[in-house]
Amino acid sequence: MPLDPLGATVQKMTGLMKRLGLDQRIQDYVTRSIRFHTHAAPGVIISVFMVDLALEILGAEPSERLYATCETRKCAPDPLQILLGCTAGNNRLQVLPIGRFAFTLNRPSDGPTADGVRVFVDPKKLPAYPTIMAWYSHARGFDKKGREDTLYEEIFRAGRRILSHERVRLKVPSKKEWESATCPCCGELVPGDLIEGGACKGCGPTAYYEKVGV
Q1: What would the pLDDT profile of 31-57 be if each residue is shown by its tens digit?
Q2: Alpha-carbon distance 85 to 67, whole Å?
Q3: Which residues of the chain form CATH 3.30.1330.130?
């Protein structure tokens, strides 16, 4: 029975990683992340190496309770979710629309700050990998489909070599007591501090839909 497109992609990536002699741990991380993301995005693969590096610098295990702050919505949040269990729902993943391909990782802290590590794609290291550089910089005329195989191989060969890291200290938001309030517009319950200008954010500045029926 032929493989589905995702299964075929995973098989292809697994074959490439084996040929290049990548550690079995990385192979497992990549396979799980591709399946979660639903396709082999180059950014997802790079993010796997970022997660692996951050864990090593922290001296942490994937099973630990860790907190992540990701600086891009593209690709990088997914390995953080599937490999580390950091999700928006469990309040261990924050995604900031900064646009830098980077994230911080830290352990829990009972104080006002937490020490962690920030890992990022270092532009100064990309010239040694011209295909990655062309893709990452969104170079005009770069044919991603035509050079896809070269790009994947270059990413696997580069691994951590395109990354840098720095020790950082993050502010830990204090837990606040809250009470629910009824939005005068929609009648639904929301945390009281999210009522602004007489309406919840869904009826105000963050409204994203128009009601067309029931």
Answers
A1: 999 999 999 999 999 999 999 999 999
A2: 9
A3: 5-171
